[in-house]
Specification:
alpha+beta; Transferase(Phosphotransferase), domain 1; 8-stranded antiparallel β-sheet; 3-stranded antiparallel β-sheet; 13 strands
């Protein structure tokens, strides 16, 4: 569990859109926080994942990850970074900020959200988010270790009734001390986590582990699954 402060939320209008932010971490909210060309951020590109739209940055808020929302797949050929507008709270950035805030305030190991923004243009919008960077960790894809801790982190997320849209081996981080962090809550949803939904999330992780680590990944996932079932039985 994390020891971060209680995340609060304030909002501020910007040209064409708005920012929501944690006022304890972001003293001067502005759209410059989301510009990787802003020299004050010292942005460096995240090499793994991010669709070439994520950067490590630093500032008065500490060390963070800046991510611009980008589409993948065939639809990216039509629109790479624009989404249909259906209200501020439904934007990818504000929705992810709120889920990270809620999970962080419950004490789960997720990166604290610092700020999120959207820019509206007619029926479309663009979005970006700034989240805390978790230091000194490796991805599950890099190190198959601590299956019980991995299961415990996933179970805690499910107990909070959050469904992870992309639970894969790169979105589970492990420290040398065995702490587990879950990241990338884009498109995550608050849902009543039925046994079927829980298993579907776990099977998504299995497919990822098979892809990155073959049978070793599958064997590790079996340990995670077994630990998850044990933890679930203890909560009955």
């Amino acid at each position: 569990m994390n020891t971060q402060h209680f995340v609060k939320t304030s909002t501020r209008d910007i040209p064409g859109g708005a920012i929501c932010f944690d006022p304890a971490r972001i003293v001067t909210p502005s759209e410059h926080l989301f510009n990787p060309d802003n020299a004050q951020l010292g942005a460096s590109s995240v090499k793994v994942g991010g669709r070439q739209s994520a950067w490590f940055v630093t500032g008065a808020f500490g060390s963070a990850v800046l991510r611009h929302y980008r589409r993948g797949g065939m639809i990216a050929r039509i629109s790479r970074d624009r989404y249909i507008w259906s209200g501020a709270s439904a934007t990818r950035s504000f929705a992810e900020f709120c889920i990270l805030r809620d999970l962080s305030n419950l004490g789960l190991n997720v990166p604290a959200p610092l700020a999120a923004a959207y820019w509206r243009s007619g029926p479309f919008y663009r979005a970006a988010i700034l989240i805390e960077r978790i230091e000194g960790v490796r991805t599950l894809a890099e190190t198959l270790d601590h299956p019980h801790a991995v299961a415990l982190a996933i179970h805690a997320m499910h107990q909070a009734n959050v469904w992870h849209a992309d639970l894969n081996a790169y979105n589970v981080l492990l420290s040398q001390a065995g702490q587990v962090w879950l990241i990338d809550f884009d498109r995550a949803r608050r849902r009543t986590m039925s046994p079927a939904l829980r298993q579907a999330n776990l099977l998504r992780l299995r497919r990822s582990l098979l892809k990155v680590a073959g049978q070793n990944g599958v064997q590790f996932w079996s340990q995670v699954q077994q630990a998850y079932e044990q933890i679930s039985a203890e909560h009955l």
